[in-house]
Amino acid sequence: MSDTMPQDQQDQQDQQHQQDRQKLESFDPATGDVVGVHAVDDAASVEAAVARARASAAWWAGIGFDARAEVLGQWRAVLTRRMAQLADVVHAETGKPHADAQLEIGLAIDHLAWIGAKAEKVLGRHRVSPGLLLANHSASVEYLPLGVVGVIGPWNYPVFTPMGSIAYALGAGNTVVFKPSELTPGVGVWLADSLREVVPGQHLLQTVIGWGETGTALCRADIDKLAFTGSTATGKKVMATCAENLTPVVIEAGGKDALIVDEDADLDAAAEAAAWGAFSNAGQTCIGVERVYVHEKVADDFIGRLSERARAVHAGVDAEAKLGPMTMSSQLEVVRSHVDDAIARGGRAVVGGPESVDDRFAQPVVLVDVPEDSLAVTEETFGPTVVVNRVGCMDEAVEKANAGKYGLGGAVFSGRRGAEIARQLRSGMTSVNAVIAFAAVPSLPFGGVGDSGFGRIHGADGLKEFTYAKAVTRQRMKPVLNLTTFERTEEQDTLFATMLTALHGRASQIGKRPLRERVAAVREKRRG
Q1: Catalytic residue among 252, 379, 380, 465
Q2: 279-334: pLDDT as tens digits
Q3: Extents of the domains making up the chain
Q4: Any catalytic annotation for residue 379?
Q5: What is the topology classification, in CATH, of domain 49-253+461-469?
Q6: pTM of the model
Q7: Catalytic residue list contains 393
Q8: 53, 330, 344, 428: which has the fewest C-beta neighbours closer than 10 Å?
Q9: Which one from 47, 93, 286, 380 is the annotated catalytic residue?
């Protein structure tokens, strides 16, 4: 008897597999129940969505800032009135508590309000100085929409995070095609449907559903830019695919954020912030706290306060649970392996341990004195665990915080030196005496460096990210010295050289001290 499967049986299995791939089911991660069924978009349907977006892009760009602000304001009102309904969808697909779902929706609404109020000021045409050499010209710059923007969003904050790209791209005058995570397709559909109610005749925001193949199709489609949020490894694949068409990308990838606690910090506030930053959303936060470096003089006190707070919260489905399940079940093994590795290398679990991770939930784990080369320190855990290590001084804390490959966010708790320490951290964002506060400020840019990605969403930088700069000069009068003509004379060349020497030939007299002395003074000030 042959070990190979008969061809007709293989064909039937292939056909069944293809049919299964044509629909996507979303699940409640706490129970495994199906909460939604969606048709999967293939390359052809993705291209069709992009073509519809392209057809609406000229209208959306052409109606101007005021009309776009009115549309976004109406959408904001819809999101606000139906916040509870959207929170139900978020809760069903991610498992996070309703209150946490409402929090991320509320932050997205606040960003929408800022966009409507500030887009014209940031992007609108404004005059700039032409300089002395072209004083006979006027000069202006404005920021024009790219056209169609593709957005690939994550599952951990399925409203707030992708809206950082969607809303800012729309505010800049682009249309958007959005691929939500395969774990949270219902949230993406809900967002697109809600905006379609405001502007039923145009395709401003469309959702395409599927797995990695659908995301690949969006990368290869006729889009003008792609914004991606997800793992560093997937971000690299997205970049490579977009490079085929020279499509620019914004990448917001992983993080391994550190919180630094100085000896004069408010330890109660620091412990509360560390607990929230590490455990909220079951630790599934790219800008969450995964490492803490605390001054050895206050380390024991801080660890005690943090441990008390860690024991006071738990993951579950009961009314008292502050944490939901792990949305992506495969992440549970990552969390477990990081805890195991930390303990095997000599670290101690003062709250929880390997037993804190089961097949759906992960309970808070506090690890202390973990070697810096352990997985729990070097790799993104993305679960409700935190490593607390002692340092002898803040210079050591900064050095260890900056040692990793990531550079997304971070936090500093200090009575005197908070701002100074924050500036030394190699990260795109840092909060002083708080955690994650920068994400809630609409006027601040959001993004990282290193393996955490590049480009920015939020704020003026986020609006400009989805535009191109258009520079215009206009000659107002004939020049005294015409430099752009073949009739230029030797005397004019001499006059040009004389002008340059007068304008730029002298060395700067700033400070009236040699450069070496000024650098030494700055270093001395920092040491003090």
Answers
A1: 252
A2: 999 999 999 999 999 999 999 999 999 999 999 999 999 999 999 999 999 999 99
A3: 49-253+461-469, 257-441
A4: no
A5: Aldehyde Dehydrogenase; Chain A, domain 1 (3.40.605)
A6: 0.92
A7: no
A8: 330
A9: 286
